[in-house]
């Protein structure tokens, strides 16, 4: 039927290019909940098949799905009428029936009835072989009436079936043909009538006995016509077994019976009064009876299908393996999730015991600094993150480092060459001799995460409780129940019903005795509660009462494996019986081996030698041979032996498979063929499974070494068998016997009797072979569709599946799901006749390489040693026509069991000169250990040959890919429809989102239970779980995280409500306490199955950067993105956090306690993230991005104010930690919380402003309090927040200054020692002169002494300035000099220069002079490069401790100088101090203010004639106060004014940089500039002018300083605004994009009382998404090699 899609706009994706469209309503029923349900046909179409104006085959591929009203409304609401009801199926037949007149129709019905009676009477009166002509005429007229559709109901009379049965069983061909014509006329109307007729005929008793081959084929053809469009399913490439027509007809009967019962079940649910009937018990009882009958019929169908497909024999060697109960929705990766502890032991990671591990550091930055300071050349390192060509986990040897980017060179083992990486990407393994293996998977994972995130994740050293992360849908272990479940009982009941009359009565008697004599009818048996103990007794009694077929089913069923005697004893089920099942294949292999052995022991009885080891069954074959070979064949004895073989057919199959043996078994072959030929004459023998071993007969025909006598006997046997039963002629046709017979005739020159007749007989069954193959496919496809329908009904109703062998059928369909043999695993080794060193060219998959032989013509061969059990699906030889005379022309393929005997010819192929791929073998049904390819002749008479390659496909395909596609397709459609319905409910009412978790858990729990109960292995379970998760959870998450018109998503609204109710929920008695658990349950469920591994690289080779960059730009790195569920959830959580933080900033940014409240708010959000999503890095990152997004929305001045608040808060907490005790510990805890919050600044432009203020506070803190361990610890944690690394440089400068101070101390001691030595030498010289010269020379010596003293006095006068405090009589004060670099210390605008000569006393001035001389000498050493010497410039910065009585005064340098002046003077005027020091009035007034306070030692007296007043030491008598202890008089920080001066200067500087960048890019047009060149040009323009104007730059004060970091920050800001753009092909190139206003016309006032205008937020902060290199050199540079 061809038609248009009715509802084309409703489309659901089922896979790549695959969509499902609703087509029409098929039927209606009442659902399990009492609401109506509708069966909708969904058409499955591929993209491009539904183009406009085109038509599609509506029956080609479809899915029938039951849907409720809500699901139809959400997915295809146009199927609903105006009243909201579903438009039912059209009733076209009723309208057509009304075209005939009722009276005329009545007359025709009466005529049909009379004709039926006449035909029956004529058929009974028929005597002889020739039917009378009146009978044929009557049947012809009936056929004409049958073609009229309105008369179809009359032909449903039982007498019509009797007539057809008599006609079909008639020996006359014409009568049987007339019956077929009548059936075709009846079946030509619709599929329902055709199915009903076939069902009615097939259910007749002993119909197989009355049907001959043609009649049975006619019925099978009708069934194939009925099934051709119902279950379209392709098993292409899968070799289906050859099924005789007799067994195929039995399958058809069972299949029709099952479909009929299924229709009755649906029709019983479709009755509108079914739910409101006056007799609900009768209705439910009838439905229960139908369900039981359907389950038993379905079990019978599955059992017979398993036997027909020979699955029971194929799986006999490997017992059914139980799948472990684990989540089917989580990937099977050990330790894949970072949020959960790994369930399996990780691989050992090597690390040295002598170096600190990564987990001991608070951040990746700190560990990177440790690595940089510790690594020595030759040490082993490991990579922590993927970087260009180096992968995480690679190990190498550290070579060197420098100041380049990247700075570290490592020789990597994976590549065999050196590659440059960054410090933070490495982990120290240590030296080679002290490396040991340690399991540090948690540290490794934490290090990997810290490579992409500045916050280190905690390591999982502890073992959490099992229930902490338990899956709510994973069922607990089965507890021991006292009774069987209904499914288990019905499976056991199936075997009870299989028993014959006496055995059946015995089992019922056992049941009644144990159930208190209860009458057991059909209804009571179905609802019986079967105790486990009684079931075990039944399982002990059943095996002795069942035949072989039912016994195999019993051993494979679940109830026997669970409660059988072997299962209770802990042993495999009935091992001896299972071995008996597996015996045929083993016996066949043994038969081949025994036939090859020399029969020396039993030369006169080869058959006895064959059947040895088969016990009583083997003796049956010998007795059969004896009975058939006797002179008078004992028919009764043969029939009894045949009955035994029917029950145990293994010896018979061994007998037939012995024909597939080498020629050495000629005597055996002849004996076997004589037995088989005589057996064909017995009708009972035709019930034996001849078809299962017919391939051995065909192999005997194909064998080139077969003896002529054996071949002739084989042809006689096959001809006799095919003549007696044409079903086996069909089987021979399917096995390719026609070609085998033709080749045998060619080899023996046509001298084979009956060979031509046998070939013709096989050829005539060609169409029957296609029919049988089609029917087998249709029945198997129909069974799969019914199984999928039961699974879908199980999902919808949540009723258990009570069908026996349901798990067995699924196990066989899923076979091969966990078995994969690749092409290169098909063979063990490849051998060639010559040039073995080039044999690898055959398997390198390179068509340009080849193996070339070296030898004589026809001696070339290739030998393949196959893997055990691999059946070759296709063997292909690759050749090339360009090889000319080296190209093969004739190839022969041989098979064998060993290298010495590959003498069985499998195929001979003539190669065309234009061929490139030569198929040598296809679909072998036997395993050959050795395959040998012999090249007999080459093209153009060539001698040697060239082979370009070999391709082998194997093993044979299984049903798993087909079933997986169907299972996943049905599952995806069902859950996508349900997801749309649930999403519609959420859109209409957001509160229904609270019930989503229970809905999801119910669905997931159902699928988990189904997988644990029915699916055999993890791959099948994972395929189901993945499909369910993608079809149900992914659309739901996408819908609930998509914002609506108001910009708020349903899940975002729910998370907002959770954050608001979080505090109220802490009280269990409150009404809000039940709300948060529902939210947490939902979020835990949505994220638990998402893997947390580092995304894999999709592209093969990323483009190197920096010094590793190459000129090949053909490959680009493409990182794998996380799944859509995780992405949507993190995006939603980020939006919620951003809104929360934005609201907080808007309300509280001006508060005095803003920072503590912000840290508390951030901590609450962090705890909420952990409560909702667990310790997952993705959501922690989303939390940080949300906070960063809120900070990005702040205007520049507000952002500067916030930065200053954080810098001030950190300064206060660091100073407060000096207090010690409990208060100091609390200060440290507050500092830690603040630092965790500040880390977010590292990715923002705000970091530049924050660094500016932190630098000032840190400078004042270091100068007033000195350095401490806490300063370095803080910088380690928040180091990435300082782009220019100025605080780190300040701390390094302080360390350098301390080292200089230690060297200066040694220098002073050396100078003092030198002076003392000089004095001692001078005294010794004078004393020696007096003793030697005597009195004569007294005067001369005195003159010389005077001259020497004068010279010494001259030297002392020269050095008086330096050594004026060398002999200071009082206690010398301790003077420490701090040498601060102006590059990193903010000293230019907050201090003035100090002149020690005029402002300091002599005992201090001398120390400073000596330090100046020492520093000059330390800088005067010769160097290779001419570097300008650094000079010291003394400033007023610093602090001092003065002793004032019993008090210790802590003062600044200015205050020290002022107090020391009062040691010599009683009073000092302010005016003289200003003139003497050169200080500004503000700075001096700030110092004097604290000295004259109530704690200070001075008083300020104001005098009329003295401006500013006079300072005097305070008299204690006037105001007594305690004189002991320390007094802190250092002036507070007053130079930081973020609201007025500093913030506006920073804003002006950024605006000026923006102007310069835009102007320079405009001048270069569309070509743009490289980022490095742009930075250099901006810095050059800033330094030289003329733009920006000199006056404007000078007005910025401290803000006039500009670095490359400031320029990059401005560039990123303009990129975010869209003013500057990157080139797509070259991201490092920048150009001007759109004209925007760069300068802000006004600046926003931070004073809330200001009446100034609020300007537009032109410049906001911009997030810096590149990863900085905080470990680079501190050297100031204006060039950047990379920009990412």
Q: Structural class, judged by helices and strands?
A: alpha+beta
Spatial arrangement of strands, main beta sheet? 11-10-9-8-12
Total E-strand runs: 32
Please tally the helical runs, counting DSSP H or I stretches of 4 or more residues. 57
**How does the overall form come out from the CA principal axes?**
elongated
Question: What gap, in angstroms, lies between the N and C termini?
Answer: 60 Å
Rg, please?
A: 49 Å
* Helicity level: 40-55%
Main sheet characteristics: 5 strands, antiparallel
Give the integer mean of the pLDDT values.
74
Strand content: 5-15%
Task: List descriptors.
5-stranded antiparallel beta sheet, 49% helix, 1684 residues, disordered C terminus, 57 helices, disordered N terminus, alpha+beta
Layout of secondary structure:
Layout: E1 2-3, E2 12-15, E3 18-30, E4 36-46, E5 56-57, E6 62-68, H1 69-75, H2 92-97, H3 102-125, H4 133-146, H5 158-168, H6 173-186, H7 191-202, H8 207-210, H9 213-227, H10 245-270, H11 280-308, H12 311-314, E7 349-352, H13 364-374, E8 380-383, E9 395-401, E10 408-412, E11 418-421, E12 426-430, E13 435-438, H14 441-450, H15 486-498, H16 501-514, H17 522-526, H18 532-541, H19 548-556, H20 558-563, H21 565-568, H22 575-596, H23 606-610, H24 615-629, H25 635-647, H26 650-657, H27 666-679, H28 694-702, H29 708-724, H30 726-734, H31 737-747, H32 755-763, H33 766-797, H34 806-813, E14 827-832, E15 851-852, E16 860-866, E17 874-878, E18 888-896, E19 904-910, E20 917-922, E21 930-938, E22 946-947, E23 949-953, H35 960-988, H36 996-1014, H37 1018-1040, H38 1050-1061, H39 1075-1087, H40 1124-1148, H41 1154-1173, H42 1177-1192, H43 1196-1216, H44 1221-1238, H45 1246-1265, H46 1269-1278, H47 1286-1333, H48 1338-1358, H49 1396-1399, H50 1402-1418, E24 1439-1444, E25 1447-1452, H51 1453-1461, E26 1467-1469, H52 1470-1477, H53 1481-1491, E27 1498-1501, ...
Parallel strand pairs: 25-29
Antiparallel strand pairs: 1-5, 2-3, 3-4, 4-6, 7-13, 8-9, 8-12, 9-10, 10-11, 14-16, 15-22, 16-21, 17-20, 17-23, 18-19, 18-21, 24-25, 26-28, 27-28, 30-32, 31-32
Helix pairs in contact: 1-35, 3-4, 3-5, 4-6, 6-9, 7-9, 7-10, 9-10, 9-33, 10-11, 10-33, 11-34, 22-26, 24-25, 24-26, 27-29, 28-31, 29-30, 29-32, 30-33, 31-32, 33-35, 35-37, 36-37, 36-39, 37-40, 38-40, 40-41, 40-42, 41-42, 41-44, 43-44, 43-45, 47-50, 54-55, 54-57
């Amino acid at each position: 039927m061809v038609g248009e899609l009715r509802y084309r706009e409703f489309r659901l994706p089922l896979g790549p290019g695959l969509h499902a469209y609703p087509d029409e309503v098929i039927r209606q029923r009442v659902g399990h909940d009492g609401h109506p349900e509708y069966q909708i046909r969904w058409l499955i179409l591929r993209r491009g098949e539904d183009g406009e104006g085109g038509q599609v085959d509506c029956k080609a591929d479809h899915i029938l799905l039951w849907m409720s009203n809500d699901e139809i409304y959400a997915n295809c609401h146009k199927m609903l009428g105006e009243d909201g009801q579903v438009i039912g199926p059209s009733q076209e037949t009723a309208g057509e029936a009304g075209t005939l007149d009722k009276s005329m129709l009545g007359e025709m019905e009466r005529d049909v009835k009379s004709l039926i009676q006449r035909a029956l009477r004529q058929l009974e009166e028929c005597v002889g072989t020739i039917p009378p002509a009146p009978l044929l005429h009557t049947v012809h007229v009936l056929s004409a009436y049958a073609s009229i559709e309105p008369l179809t109901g009359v032909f449903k009379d039982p007498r019509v079936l009797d007539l057809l049965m008599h006609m079909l069983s008639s020996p006359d061909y014409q009568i049987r043909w007339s019956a077929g014509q009548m059936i075709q006329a009846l079946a030509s109307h619709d599929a329902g009538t055709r199915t009903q007729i076939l069902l009615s005929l097939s259910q007749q008793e002993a119909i197989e006995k009355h049907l001959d081959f043609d009649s049975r084929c006619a019925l099978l053809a009708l069934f194939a016509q009925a099934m051709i469009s119902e279950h379209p399913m392709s098993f292409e490439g899968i070799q289906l077994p050859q099924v005789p027509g007799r067994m195929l007809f039995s399958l058809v009967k069972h299949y029709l019976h099952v479909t009929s019962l299924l229709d009755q079940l649906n029709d019983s649910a479709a009755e509108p009064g079914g739910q409101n009937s006056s007799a609900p018990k009768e209705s439910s009882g009838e439905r229960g009876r139908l369900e039981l009958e359907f389950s038993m019929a379905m079990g019978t169908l599955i059992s017979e299908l398993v036997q027909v497909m020979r699955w029971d024999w194929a799986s006999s060697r490997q017992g059914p393996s139980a799948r472990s109960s684990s989540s089917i929705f989580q990937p099977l990766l050990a330790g894949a999730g970072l949020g959960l502890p790994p369930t399996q032991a990780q691989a050992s990671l090597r690390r040295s015991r002598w170096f600190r591990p990564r987990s001991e550091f608070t951040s990746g930055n700190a560990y990177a600094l440790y690595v940089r300071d510790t690594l020595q050349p030759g040490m082993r390192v490991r990579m922590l993150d993927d970087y260009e060509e180096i992968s995480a986990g690679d190990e190498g040897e550290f070579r060197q480092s420098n100041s380049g980017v990247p700075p570290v060179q490592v020789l990597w083992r994976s590549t065999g060459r050196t590659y440059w990486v960054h410090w933070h990407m490495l982990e120290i393994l240590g030296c080679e001799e002290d490396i040991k293996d340690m399991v540090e998977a948690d540290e490794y994972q934490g290090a990997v995460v810290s490579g992409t995130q500045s916050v280190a994740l905690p390591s999982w050293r502890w073992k959490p409780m099992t229930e902490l992360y338990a899956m709510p849908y994973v069922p607990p272990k089965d507890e021991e129940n006292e009774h069987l479940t209904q499914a288990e009982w019905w499976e056991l009941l199936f075997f009870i019903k299989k028993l014959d009359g006496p055995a059946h009565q015995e089992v019922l008697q056992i049941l009644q005795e144990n159930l208190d004599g209860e009458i057991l009818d059909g209804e009571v048996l179905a609802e019986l509660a079967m105790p486990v103990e009684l079931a075990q007794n039944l399982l002990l009694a059943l095996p002795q009462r069942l035949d072989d077929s039912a016994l195999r089913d019993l051993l494979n069923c679940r109830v026997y494996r669970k409660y059988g005697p072997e299962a209770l004893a802990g042993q495999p089920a009935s091992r001896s019986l299972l071995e008996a099942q597996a015996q045929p294949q083993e016996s066949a292999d043994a038969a081949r081996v025994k036939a090859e052995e020399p029969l020396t022991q039993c030369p006169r009885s080869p058959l006895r030698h064959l059947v040895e080891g088969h016990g009583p069954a083997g003796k049956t074959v010998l007795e059969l041979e004896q009975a058939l070979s006797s002179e008078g064949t004992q028919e009764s004895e043969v029939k009894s032996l045949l009955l035994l073989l029917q029950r145990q057919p293994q010896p018979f199959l061994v007998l037939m498979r012995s024909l597939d043996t080498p020629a050495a078994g000629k005597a055996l072959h002849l004996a076997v063929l004589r037995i088989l030929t005589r057996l064909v004459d017995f009708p009972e023998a035709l019930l034996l499974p001849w078809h299962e071993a017919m391939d051995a007969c065909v192999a005997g025909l194909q064998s080139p070494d077969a003896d002529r006598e054996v071949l002739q006997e084989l042809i006689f046997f096959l001809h006799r068998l095919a003549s007696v039963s044409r079903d086996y002629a069909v089987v021979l046709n399917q096995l390719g016997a026609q070609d085998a017979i033709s080749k045998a005739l060619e080899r023996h020159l046509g001298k084979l009797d009956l060979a031509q007749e046998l070939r013709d007989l096989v050829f005539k069954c060609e169409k029957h072979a296609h029919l049988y193959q089609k029917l087998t496919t249709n029945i198997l496809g129909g069974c799969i569709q019914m199984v999928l329908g039961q699974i879908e009904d199980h999902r919808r109703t949540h009723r258990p599946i009570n069908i026996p062998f349901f798990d067995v059928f699924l196990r066989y369909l899923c076979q091969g799901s966990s078995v994969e043999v690749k092409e290169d695993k098909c063979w063990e080794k490849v051998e060639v006749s010559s040039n073995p060193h080039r044999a690898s060219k055959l398997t390198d998959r390179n068509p340009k390489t080849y193996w070339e032989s070296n030898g004589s013509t026809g001696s070339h061969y290739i030998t393949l040693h196959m893997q055990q059990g691999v059946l070759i699906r296709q063997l292909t030889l690759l050749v090339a026509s360009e090889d000319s005379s080296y190209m093969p022309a004739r190839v022969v393929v041989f098979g064998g069991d060993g290298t010495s005997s590959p003498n069985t010819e499998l195929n001979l192929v003539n190669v065309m000169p234009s061929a490139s791929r030569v198929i040598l073998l296809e679909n072998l049904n036997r395993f050959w250990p050795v395959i040998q390819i012999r090249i007999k002749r080459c093209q153009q008479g060539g001698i040697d040959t060239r082979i370009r390659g070999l391709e082998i496909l194997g093993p044979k395909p299984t049903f798993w890919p087909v079933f997986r596609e169907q299972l996943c397709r049905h599952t995806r459609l069902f859950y996508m429809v349900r997801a749309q319905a649930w999403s519609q409910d959420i859109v209409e009412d957001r509160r229904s989102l609270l019930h989503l978790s229970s809905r999801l858990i119910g669905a997931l729990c159902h699928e988990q239970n189904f997988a644990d109960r029915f699916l055999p292995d993890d791959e099948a379970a994972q395929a189901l779980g993945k499909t369910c998760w993608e079809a149900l959870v992914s659309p739901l998450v996408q819908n609930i995280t998509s914002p609506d018109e108001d910009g708020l998503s349903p899940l975002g609204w729910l998370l907002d409500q959770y954050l608001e109710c979080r505090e109220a929920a802490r009280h269990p008695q409150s009404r809000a306490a039940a709300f948060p658990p529902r939210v947490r349950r939902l979020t835990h469920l949505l994220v638990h199955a998402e893997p947390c591994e580092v995304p894999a690289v999709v592209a093969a080779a990323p483009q190197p950067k920096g010094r590793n960059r190459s000129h090949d730009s053909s490959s680009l790195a493409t990182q794998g993105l996380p799944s859509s569920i995780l992405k949507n959830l993190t995006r939603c959580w980020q939006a919620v956090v951003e809104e929360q933080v934005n609201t907080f900033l808007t309300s509280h940014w001006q508060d005095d306690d803003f920072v503590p409240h912000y840290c508390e708010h951030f901590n609450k959000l962090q705890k909420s993230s952990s409560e909702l999503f667990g310790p997952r890095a993705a959501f922690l990152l989303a939390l940080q991005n949300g906070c960063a997004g809120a900070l990005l929305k702040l205007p520049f001045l507000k952002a500067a104010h916030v930065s200053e608040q954080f810098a001030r808060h950190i300064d206060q907490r660091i100073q407060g930690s000096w207090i010690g005790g409990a208060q100091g510990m609390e200060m440290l805890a507050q500092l830690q919380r603040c630092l965790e919050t500040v880390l977010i600044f590292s990715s923002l432009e705000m970091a530049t402003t924050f660094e500016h203020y932190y630098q000032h506070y840190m400078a004042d803190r270091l100068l007033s309090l000195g350095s401490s361990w806490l300063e370095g610890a803080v910088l380690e944690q928040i180091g990435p927040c300082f782009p220019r690394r100025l605080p780190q440089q300040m701390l390094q400068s302080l360390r350098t200054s301390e080292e200089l101070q230690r060297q200066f101390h040694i220098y002073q001691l050396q100078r003092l020692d030198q002076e003392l030595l000089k004095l001692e030498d001078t005294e010794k010289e004078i004393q020696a002169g007096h003793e030697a010269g005597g009195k004569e020379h007294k005067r001369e010596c005195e003159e010389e002494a005077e001259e020497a003293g004068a010279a010494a006095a001259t030297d002392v006068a020269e050095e008086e300035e330096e050594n004026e405090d060398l002999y200071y009589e009082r206690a010398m004060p301790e003077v420490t000099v701090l040498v601060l670099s102006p590059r990193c210390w903010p000293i230019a605008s907050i201090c003035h220069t100090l002149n020690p000569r005029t402002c300091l006393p002599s005992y201090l001035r001398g120390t400073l002079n000596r330090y100046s001389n020492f520093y000059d000498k330390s800088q005067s050493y010769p160097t290779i490069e001419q570097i300008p010497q650094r000079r010291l410039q003394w400033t007023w910065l610093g602090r001092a401790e003065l002793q004032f009585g019993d008090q210790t005064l802590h003062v600044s340098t200015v205050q020290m100088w002022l107090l020391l002046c009062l040691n010599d003077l009683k009073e000092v005027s302010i005016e003289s101090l200003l003139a003497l020091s050169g200080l500004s009035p503000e700075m001096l007034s700030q110092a004097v203010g604290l000295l004259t306070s109530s704690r200070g030692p001075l008083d300020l007296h104001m005098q009329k004639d003295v401006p500013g007043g006079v300072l005097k030491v305070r008299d204690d008598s006037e105001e007594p106060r305690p004189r002991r202890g320390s007094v802190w008089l250092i002036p507070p920080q007053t130079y930081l004014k973020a609201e007025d001066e500093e913030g506006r200067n920073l804003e002006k500087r950024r605006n000026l940089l923006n102007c310069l960048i835009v102007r320079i890019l405009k001048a270069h047009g569309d070509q743009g500039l490289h980022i490095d060149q742009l930075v250099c040009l901006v810095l050059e323009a800033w330094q030289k002018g003329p733009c920006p104007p000199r006056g404007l730059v000078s007005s910025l004060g401290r803000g006039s300083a500009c670095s490359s970091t400031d320029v990059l920050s401005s560039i990123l800001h303009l990129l975010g605004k869209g003013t500057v753009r990157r080139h797509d092909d070259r991201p490092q190139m920048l150009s001007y994009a759109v004209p925007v206003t760069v300068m802000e016309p006004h600046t926003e006032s931070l004073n809330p009382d200001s009446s100034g205008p609020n300007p537009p937020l032109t410049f906001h902060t911009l997030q810096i998404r590149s990863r900085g290199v905080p470990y680079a050199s501190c050297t100031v540079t204006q060039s950047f090699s990379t920009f990412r």
